[in-house]
Amino acid sequence: MPSQRPSQRLSSRPSARLSQRLSLRPALATAAVLTSTALLATACTSSATSPSGSSGGSGGKQTITFMGFYGTFQDAFTKTVIKPFEKANPDITVTYVPIQNSSEVLAKLRASTARPVADVALMDSSVAPTANKEKLFAPLDASKVPNLDRLVDSAKSKDGHGPAVTFDSLSILYNSKNVKKAPTSWNDLWNAEYKDKLAMPIADTRGVALIIALEKLLHADYKSDINPAIDKLKTLSSAVQTWQPSPDVYTAIQSGDADVAVGWNARGQYYKDSSGGVVQPVLPKEGTVTQVNTINLVNNSAHTAAAQKFIDYAIGAEAQKAFDDEAFYAPVNKDVQLAAETKERTQASAEQRKNQIPVDWNWLTTRYTDWVDRIKREVIGG
Amino acid sequence: MTADPADGPARAPEDTRAARPATAPPAVKAPPRGRGPGRLALALLAPGLLALLLTYALPLVWVVRMSLNESEEGGAIRQTLSAATFGHVLGSGHYWNVIGQTVELGVLVTFFTLLVSYPVALFLARTTSRWRSLLIALAVTPLLISSVARTFGWMAILGTQGVINKTLTGAGLIDSPLHLANNFTGVVIASTEIYMPFAILAMISGFGRLDPALEHAAASLGAPRRTVFRRIVLPLTLPGVLTAALLVFVLSLSGYVTPRLIGGGRVFVLATEIYDEAITALDWPVAAVLSMLLLAVFGVVITLYLRAQRALEARFTGPREAGS
Fold first, then answer.
1. Which of A129, A166, A296, B171 is in the most buried spot, having the most CB atoms within 10 Å?
2. ipTM over the 0.90 cut-off
3. Span of the secretion signal (chain A) (predicted)?
């Protein structure tokens, strides 16, 4: 019976020394890996929780923190809204905190109710009612935001909370190099030419918007019954290559991984220019559905006056025109005259305005989860 | 699976120790208990424990608390103490499918990862080449590249426009591209490669018992190579295999990036579902319940691992180890 541990004898081999040093005990190594993973994960989530803006006295220079979307949105918004605002208001500095999506804003504000991490935040109109209900956002003081009067009706808030600041629309995107016959209608998604070439990221707001568009085509009412749209989408399942293109749908179309997709128009238009026309967004002839981002005053903000000044500027005609011409959104302000090209490439065009499919996002907030679940379970998983 | 304490082999260590009280005085087993060293140990542990408490224990408590809340329409959270969300999740066929698919993915990925990593690990553990350290380093270099980048690499290889499909269609072997990405198959293939370095490292460190002398002895007694592998090498390497299996299985159960990126939205596993519930559906209580269920699955897996490990030790090395 050997009395020595094999591992002890192994170490007499010169090459084994390294392996011993390298080898933590298996259990220890496992624990180390697991712990470091856990640490990493928590480190990521606990970042960006420092309280917002320095409270530099009432008269002096103030810094307000604005949470907006990342990437091209941030570039365009900084250039056309924040910089001019800071120029016009030298005593206010705006810090831009980029966020991935509206639920991230919700999470960050929920975690910092007493000393919020932002003063002004963008939020999708399907999420904003929840934040309003939880009192994460405060109602605006209409006397401090005079531009509220200049808004188009669909941009106004019914209960005095943050109004709409951008109008985007659902588009069909296609790769102009690979697609012979360009899509013009929602029905074209079922075109046999696109089989196995479709990218349909619809397990989120895009799917909700698509259901509303299809309900109109099928002469159904989305408020009473979405079965027609769900059944119609089920027949598309076998033609879909991916329900979740990576890294995003615009890149997938540009690279030719997918040929036809649904996506947001503003980003699609940006990619159209940056890809030299390879990515082509189409606003279908039957009309499209508006996606709304609202701009909100965070409750318990230490800079309510400056924050509302900023909100007022963002929904004002000057900022709206500059931002929309840069980033291809439709204006929320009545007084805006967009450049002719911007008009044609957004829902502000005459044809799209005629066919606009109305949406009650406030009502949809209560159905949103249910619809997305049905898309996931019946259309994607079915 | 004989981990019953009343079982013969499992009892063996205690028996031998009890039989030789003089040769193994308890003072040798337990370090001397002075106040100084104890305090020092505590002081040394404190930063780590504090960090774990802040970044791991507290968030976990928060998740447990959240799982007892209920969500209202539109993602608002009702603060309460109820098992209603648990009932909702456990009563839904969808979430059971998700759990089933998570475990199925874990089992398949673990199986394939072990299958391809074992020969590599065995070679690295046994080789006497002067390049051995370099080779071990090479085996783990993939860890230098983020799994996101490696998953994208696999998408370029497996996609319909990918290397494999281009080659096969170009050679006229297939008419329409194979569906290798944007589905379960793609996730299994990519995950297998991504977890290989972990498996190889875990196995090498678990192969400590492997001793060429034993193989030589078996061979000198006339055992053919196959028998040597079956009766000597395989049993001695099983503890390492078991550790690697645990590591890969746990990593795969909690894996988010690969199923998300290469799953094409068709692969529903717990990690992606938790993300969707928390971020898209805004249903934090359900996300918290799913996190608890994932923890429960981990608990089951670790229990199985410990039992298997005890059974292994008892069967192959337990009684002998105790004699040293």
1. A296
2. no
3. 1-41
